[in-house]
Amino acid sequence: MAACLATLLALPLLAACQPRRSSPSLIVATKSRIDSLDPVQASRIGVMQVLSGLGDPLYAIDSNGRLETRLATALPVLSDDGLRARIPLRQGVLFHDGTPFNADAMAFSLRRFMAIGTLGYQLGERVESVRVTAPYEIELALKRPFSPLPRLLSAIFLTPVSPTAYRRHRDKPLNDRFVGTGPYALAFFGGQQQRLTPWPRYWGKRPLNAGIDLVTLSNSTALFGALRSGEVDLLLNSGLEIDHQQALHRDAAAGRLREAIGPSQEIALVSLLSDQPPLNRPVLRQAVARSLDRATIVRRVTLGLRSPQRQLIPPDLPGSDPSAWPAYDPAKARILYRQAGYCQGKVLTLPLTYRSDIPTDRLFALTWQAQLRRDLADCVTLEVTGMEATTAYSQLDKGALTMLFYDWIGDYPDAENFLMPLLSCSKAEGDRCLKGNSVLGGSFWTAPGLEAELQRSSQLDGPERVSLLVAIQRRVAAANPYLPVWLSAPAAWGGLGVSQPRFDGSGRVRLGELRRLSAADGARVP
Amino acid sequence: MSRRSDLARYLASRLALAPLMLWLIASLVFLLLRVAPGDPIDALLGTRAPEAARAALRAQLGLDRPLAEQYGRFLGHLLRGDLGQSLTNGEPVTRLIQDSLPASLELGVVALLLAAIVGLAVGFSGIARPEGRLDLAGRLYGIGTYALPPFWAAMVVQLVFAVWLGWLPVGGRFPATLMPPQGTGFYLLDSLRAGDWQQLGGSLRHLVLPASTLGLLLSGIFTNALRLNLRRALGSDYVEAARSRGLSERRVVLHHALPNALLPVLTITGITVASLIGGALLIEVTFSWPGIAFRLQEAIAQRDYPLVQGIVVVVAALVVLVSVLVDLVVALLDPRIRF
User: Fold this and answer.
1) N or C end of chain B, less CB within 10 A?
2) CB pairs under 8 A between A and B
3) Can you give the pTM of this predicted structure?
């Protein structure tokens, strides 16, 4: 007892002798553990956020969704057949090891990414080869014309790395170092902690802060507590539970925190197994689509922090069609269930699987189940089952899951990145996809001519492309192989001692714009 | 002489069986991971990648080979002390374990010391007046701390001392604004060796909450064990004999009853140490402590086969070693032990 009391008494003493936070750098916390900072390994949001401070892509998307040049000096110049794209590169840029950035370095990085990148297929599926055409110009030979090329090249995982520093890692990742061209250089790397210091010879605008310390905290309570206690300056919402997000949102509304919301890149959806009973009947899929009360579910499950979504393409992107999918209509749904032979003493039982390791997924499943019990109990009932995410993904392409609730995050902001991965089909029999992304997405659905339309949409540009994308979405919405449910946006919260955080168009916080405010600054900014 | 040779034979047999036990554990983990649903490719790429990319990654990671071949390679590498490379980032598994194991051991050792000091003190405190208030409080303490759900206790401690009072950090192992000490991976030791008091203070501040929580939760075991064994010892014939010889109660308790009562506690300590080598998952997760249990949990979620196998084999080897050492110490201290 005495020792216990002594321990408790010792705590304030320990606290008293702790050094006060004197570091001029800012502390940014997230849940994502970072095992590697090599762009070839990058596939998770946390890594992309750190890389966005350490590296530069060829192009970037600004806060208004417009494309801007970074390491490229102009948009790609396409050949007449659209199969070759020449990209002029910025001169006078140095890597963090002092070596110059040039066409050789860019070609080295792109080839390395295609060869060993976890997301190497994103480039490899579209680019045949990379050629150096001048000291500061590269040429990409495309497999087919690809209009969203600049947007793909805005992906931070395509940031160049120094060929000198990565010479021995041409065919294997270099995890604990990063030598790129970005505004910050990596000063320290640990799985739970990374230190970024401003790179004094950066070609662009210098960061407004003295450095960034990124820390990983493993659970939502710790993240939330760390911001509330002032232990961290900025918190990213990835991994934060929804009630914690709501509490922070309220604090921000009350002026106690600063809040920034980024562009939505994440869509939660339900896949409907369309090649097996019972959902191989289009009338039933239509009925299910009209049975989903998104507004109620989003309000109850996400506490209003996400927005109901009736399309596959995020609303900020060209080709968006906000009302593509049918709205909630229980009366119409009942008619459709009746047409299919249900509601007259016969109740359709639909198995819905959710990812058990994601709390909101379980809430979604239970809320939809309750909503159907309220509105259509005599026609349909949900049988909900939780399954660990990795297990669920492995079952999806085997046709084992009648309906799975999961989410899709685009690797770069373009409509193509939201349609092709869910709908593309390389081998089909009528409306049944036998091989392709539609199988991997769990719907097994396609339609005659759809693949050609998808391919054509990635070759067109401008209004013609937009109208084709809208047409594709409407065609898919009529068949309902997927049900979009809600849209998530990245968010960040900072204390009042830090300037207002801002996101770029790719959903990354602009680390270089953050700065610690003086008392006078704090008084001016609410 | 006979007892010493018995002990040597016992230890030799335990050590000789250790490789067999490790082989069985390694094989079991290898098979269970492959039988369990889920695929490392799905964990790495989610549902996003096309079939060709998935196949390429599968081949790159050697997962397209027949199971027997994968098993043969795994055992071959294991015999050479090579635990393979993580599927997640290609780092040698040995290095990842070297990064995480010291964190768990440091937490475990400090928590165990705290548990032993607090637990034994509480267990001992009620002995003067059995069934008295202090004894009752000690009993309640023992049951209460043992029964507390670790994640709940950890969260309450975190909320009170880190979030509300702001005295200590909510998580992590080291202040974000300082550079962690280099060396063995045991931050307290490395800071002391470097003579860097700022680093030592930072390490201690981060260690206080997880170690105190874990220590207090474990202390109930020591409290109950000491209390029960001491009471049993105080009622035994040799204690009665000591009392009848006119020895003071203090001498009877400290010199006759306590040493005998501590022997079972030593065995319990050994078991606790063995369990702590594998880390205290809930404490590590709650306090973002980058230990081996936390690493294992992540590796399982990512289906990082080599990392899971490596951690299990290393932890199993250490557990075997610790249990042999505990047997040895108990045998040396207690002449009644026969093998």
Assistant:
1) N
2) 186
3) 0.86
